[in-house]
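Shape matters. As here.
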Amino acid sequence: MFQGATVAETLPAMYGISLLEANSMILTRFISLCRYIQIFAVISLLAAQVQASDVYYPDSLSKQQQKKLTAIASDFTISKPCKGTLLNLVKKGTYCITPQRLYNFAAWLTLKDSTQNFVRKQLQIRYDFFTTSDTVSIDTTGYPHFGDPENPIVITVYASSTCNLCKVVVRAVEDSILNGSLKNKAILVIKPFSAGIGDMAKMAAFRQNQYKTFSDALAQIKTRFTEKDLLTIADSIGLDMPKFTAALKDSTTRAFLLKGRDEGVRNGVEVTPTFFINSKRYSSYKDPQWLIDAIPVIYEMLN
């Protein structure tokens, strides 16, 4: 009966409707199908991004470690942005990402054979950071920065040119903002916590729009650098040498950096690097992965 007929021709006979109504039905179903495909594509993309960027530590635990993690997650309760114990929220697969990321953090600590009490304490410290409303005053005007200033999350770091940990952690955050998971989500502002010659040199390079190139080259020096090293780097990357040399002893720049250091001291900074995210002091682990991992949670808390 229907051999060789189109779908539009078949539907009127099947459902007792007109050809116009049949065409309308086909169009409606086609639009619905397109929407489902679009939604599925977005979900798949988000899942791919998570799988590509995250290490899921629970999968690496031994049975004993998994038992420890379950005990921790079963009695650790959160109230923002969703409510319940970590274990129940992770099992349910709720709409919010905070439980899963806290659970993964706890698994990482458990994998390091940390005690249950230690894991609980660090988990609480991390969650308290996410939910606190305590902020400090930070002036970011005139300092080196990476990322679009219009991004909703501002990461400020008090750092020093002689700090080895700064080279690793700050560089990782820079790279994530420029080319990684934090792109279009955050801005990084770097505030030197000293007025030493290395930080004076970085500011001089910044004012010639060569901050990152200069900083990356300086980070390659594994021993204590000298003024000669700074001049060599500046010359090698094509800076205006008379301007650069003069900037190393510029009293206005020195006063600017000392003012920034005084601000840091008022904000409780004692060591470098010390990070603040949206003016809240970051009090959890400074490993680059966990600093970067905190940003999606902060982003979620804002919405």
Observations:
- The two ends are 57 Å apart (CA to CA).
- Strands lie at 77-78, 84-85, 145-146, 153-159, 186-192, 274-277, 280-281.
- The chain has three domains: 7-52, 56-131, 145-290.
- The first helix runs from residue 7 to 15.
